[in-house]
Amino acid sequence: MTTQIATLKTASFKLVCVVFLFLTLILVGCGKGAAPDFQRPPAPVSVITAIKQDVPVYLDAVGKTVAREMVSIQPQVSGRITQIHFVDGAYVKKGSSLFTVDPRPYQAQLHVAEANFAETQASLDLAKTDFDRVASVVNTKAVSKQDYDAKKNAVAVAEAQLKQRQAEIEVAQLNLAYCFITSPIEGRTGQRLADLGNIVEPNGPSLLTIQRLDPIYADFTIPENDLTNVQINMRDESLNVEVRLPDDPKRVRQGSLTFLDNSVQEGAGTVKLRATVPNEDHYFWPGRFVNIRVVLSTQPGAILIPAAAPQMSAKGTFVYTVKSDSTAELRPVTLGQRQGDLVVITEGLQPGERVVVTGQLGVTPGGKVLIHETPESRAGTQGGPVVSKSGGKS
Predict the structure, then answer these.
(1) Mean of pLDDT over the chain
(2) Where are the domains of the chain?
(3) For the chain, where are the alpha helices, taking DSSP H only?
């Protein structure tokens, strides 16, 4: 039995050795064949040619629109409101009627003042007549010096009283005029705060507010580090300002920088500025937030590429350029300001070079690329910003 087991073990060992030798020969035979020649296919990309163009140099800020003029309508006399001449939210011109306070008591006061004036005028005429009579005989000693002085004083007192009565008439006329409340400016009315029949008093609550909407102010702040650039560029002329609503960024309204505060705000490190913007169509509304761009100057001959082209790496920003032999080159670049959908390249790129815009993930430095033409690549970056005469872009 032991002999049979030993014989089986020897046969199994020989079988394993034969199988191992066979597999070894197969592997050696495969190793003698030539290695396959693997080459990565070209990466599909789209490219755009870098262009050279004048662009604005600007500062961006968030501001708030403010009415150029705002007045609070308050009564100057007491009385009952008898008429309202406008509707809430109406546009009124300077001098337009707003409220009427019951004028009858003030008309009566004016009549009393006029009557007192007439009475005093009569007294003055009599005093002058008496004085003229005395003055004509004073040299003949027919009247005493005391009587002469008394008559002369009576004339002076009557003249002073007449001036007082004239002032009372003017006050009464002014109070009567205050009964008819008009708009001191042209603008849009708010919601009225008093109704027909209400009693109003001087220095009481406001009846109404009116705001002038054209032109309109856009107030904003900039960091103190940007103040020098603003001051330098303001020396020759007023700076142009572009104002946009956040919900309508494509619609740009051109204005001008008209105010620069005389100090930096302590603690905040910012400076207040104000732009004046035409607003004939009342597109801007007081109190709304707006995006503001102050155009400082124009940078001539800037190199522009789409903002989607630059990529980030551990060593900084780079782009892929495509050579004439369709190989890609990794090019470190320095970015400038955004110009809409484009960005300025201050270093690392020359105008006319082809830059990869899409498909960067499949590109390797020195590898081949397969360019897919698009309308943009055929036209370059002609859709970029166009500098206007004012230095802004359209």
Answers:
(1) 83
(2) 45-54+300-379, 60-68+215-298, 75-101+179-205, 103-178
(3) 2-31, 104-137, 145-178, 227-234, 375-379
